[in-house]
Each structure stands twice: as structure tokens, then as C-alpha cells.
Design a protein that fits this description.
The protein has about 190 residues and is an alpha/beta fold. About 40% of the residues lie in helices and about 15% in strands. A six-stranded parallel β-sheet has the order 5-4-1-7-6-8, with helices on both faces. A two-stranded antiparallel sheet has the order 2-3. The longest helix is centred in the middle third of the chain and has 15 residues, at about 55-70. The chain is globular. The N and C termini lie close together (about 5 Å). It binds S-adenosylmethionine. S-adenosylmethionine binds next to helix 8.
């Protein structure tokens, strides 16, 4: 089964309100390979937009330098596939800015979908249910963390908390870009 519109799922890669390995709240740095690879996954699965959210104007400028290289610079003539993937990237300062952009485009507030590698407490939505939810056509925003994941305060902003992606064993340390690709495939992939 393939999806046609009205599915409207965007992705946001967050760096503010993250935990470090000691469990303290930090702002993480920008990892350019995350921008590249998540853009490619977002384009492959027809995500509406991929927001890269960073509170530092210097790191937002770095993200824009990367995207402009592939959209209008030498990269645009060298690799058209990458140009197409990076054209959906929007650099913003915060989760709120990404939400506002979706509100301006659609007139409604997107359903925030939180993600984590941990089981944690509370209800989690299965990917099958998330897929059905998305098929109703309401705009949704998949929240991706960095570092050691999102603070509880940030997770609590979401109305949907997706189940963690799990392998067969106890080891569960996927990169955010790998986890994103798996989650997009489960929610938007062809069955
Ligand atoms: N222990 C952290 C956590 O709470 O998810 C790992 C953080 S991971 C390096 C960065 C981000 O990748 C997470 O915030 C989440 O968005 C995503 N992620 C990584 N592994 C995941 C998994 N198994 N299931 C769902 N999301 C995952």
C-alpha cells in the first residue's frame, strides 16, 4: 500500500533541552551528517518538511551554509539527488518556531510526536497506530533528540509518545539518523 496525501508528517531535529551523559540539561552541537542523512530519509518517505532547530545563530548559519552549498552552490550542479533532499530542510531556532511554521502553513497546531530509545513510564503509541493516526491527515511533527535524549519537560510537550525502536537484544544505541529512518519506514513506508 502506498501513501498519497493527505499525510502531513514533518520532522524536527532538536538540540536545546537535551540531556548529557550525566543527566544534566544541555544544548548539544550540530552534527552535519545528521542533517544530510535525515534530509535524505525525510525526502524518501515524503515528509513534508525537515526542521533543524538550534538556539545558536552560529550553528544555524553553519546549517544554512551546508544546505546552500547543495541548493545553490557547487553541490547543486554536482549531485541533484542531494539538492532535492536538502531542499526540504528549514533551519529554525526552536521547536516553537517549527510549530509556528506548520501553523502558518496549515492553520492548525501539529500533533507533537516524541521519541526515545528508553521504555520509560506512561503510554506509548505503536507505529501501527501512529500510521493510522497520520492517515487522518492532521499535521504532525516527529521530535528527534540528540545527545542522551530529550528532557522530561520537552517530552511532556508531546501528545503522542512513540514506542522505542528495539532490536532483539539489550543493546539499544541507535544514532538519531538510523532511528529516524526506521521510524519513518514504519509509519510511512510501503507495505
Ligand atoms: N538514551 C537516549 C534516548 O532517550 O533516546 C538516546 C538518545 S539518541 C542518541 C538521540 C535521539 O535519537 C533520541 O532522542 C530519539 O529521538 C532517537 N532515538 C535513538 N534511538 C531510538 C530508539 N531506539 N527509538 C526511538 N528513537 C530513538
Amino acid at each position: 500500500m502506498s501513501f498519497a496525501p493527505p499525510v502531513d508528517l514533518s520532522v524536527v531535529l532538536l538540540h536545546d533541552g537535551m540531556l548529557n551523559k550525566e543527566g544534566r540539561e544541555v544544548v548539544t552541537s550540530l552534527t552535519l551528517i545528521d542533517v544530510h542523512d535525515i534530509a535524505r530519509s525525510a525526502r524518501t518517505y515524503n515528509a513534508t518538511s525537515f526542521y533543524v532547530a538550534h538556539p545558536s545563530q552560529h550553528l544555524r548559519a553553519l546549517a544554512r551554509t551546508l544546505t546552500e552549498h547543495w541548493l545553490t552552490g557547487y553541490g547543486s550542479t554536482y549531485n541533484n539527488n542531494r539538492k532535492e533532499a536538502l531542499s526540504a530542510v528549514q533551519v529554525v531556532a526552536s521547536l516553537d518556531d517549527a510549530v509556528t511554521q506548520i501553523e502558518l502553513r496549515t492553520g492548525v497546531t501539529p500533533v507533537l510526536m516524541a521519541t526515545s530509545a528508553k521504555d520509560g513510564e506512561g503510554m506509548r503509541m505503536s507505529f501501527e497506530d501512529a500510521r493510522s493516526h497520520l492517515l487522518k491527515g492532521d499535521p504532525a511533527l516527529l521530535m528527534l533528540g540528540t545527545g542522551h535524549g530529550m528532557t522530561q519537560e520537552l517530552l511532556d510537550r508531546a501528545s503522542v509518545f512513540l514506542s522505542p525502536v528495539k532490536g532483539p537484544g539489550m543493546y539499544n544505541h541507535l544514532s538519531v539518523r538510523s532511528a529516524c529512518a526506521i521510524m519513518l519506514d514504519r509509519m510511512l513506508g510501503v507495505r
